[in-house]
Write a structure and sequence with these properties.
single chain, 12 strands, 134 residues, four-stranded antiparallel β-sheet
Length: 134
Amino acid sequence: MQKIMLILLTGFCGITWLACGNAQKRYFDLNSGENIVVEKDAQGRLVNADDKKPVRFYVDAKTKDTIDGRTGKVVNGELVKVDDERYEYISVQEILAADDDYKKKIEKDGDVKIKSGDKKIKSDGKTGERKVKK
């Protein structure tokens, strides 16, 4: 009887441990499509705790909010899927869709520069601040 109780208790503890381990990964990385743990690195940026890579956009499963990993800003309803691996703000896509003649440059630090006809858009990779010139 003691062996059966020990086996049941061991099984229960294992299930509880698995559930607790999965509960920590409450964030969903939109780019990778994986559940992740988010933490701040030494520079204060939000990164994936497993691979230490910066997280661009992620969803908090508890609050159901979509968050910009560079700024921490809630961006619900402001994103559109650009291709299989990237999301971008809708406002940037609307400007690009209006004019087929454009150039887009994404720098290593995350800054984005877009030229569309006579419009220029600059987006700071760290703060998320955007400037539009016409």
